[in-house]
Amino acid sequence: MSDEFNMSMRKFLKQVGVTSQQAIEEAMRNADGTAGKTFEAKVVLTIDGVNLEHVVTGTIQAPDA
Q: pLDDT tens digits, residue range 14-46?
């Protein structure tokens, strides 16, 4: 694959990672009764035009109070 493709993909994935972490942290701060609990998480990545749907699942443990 080309360098341009790799750079654009890495830039997109970095943005996904940073903004997702910020959203999760904010949601945990704003939610009541989450201290120490574990939550199921899912990310669905789609790319229009290339028929891609990629699902990643996992768990996230909220911080203790």
A: 999 999 999 999 999 999 898 889 999 999 999
Closest-CA residue to 43 (of 27, 21, 61, 62): 21
* Domain with 32 in it: 3-61
Of the CA atoms within 13 Å of residue 57, those in its CB half-sphere come to 2
Q: What is the pTM of this model?
A: 0.84
With vertex at residue 59, the alpha carbon angle to CA 53 and CA 28, rounded to the nearest 5 degrees, is 105
Instruction: Please say whether the beta carbons of 32 and 62 come within 8 A.
Output: no
Domain total for the chain? 1
What single-letter DSSP state applies at residue 48? T
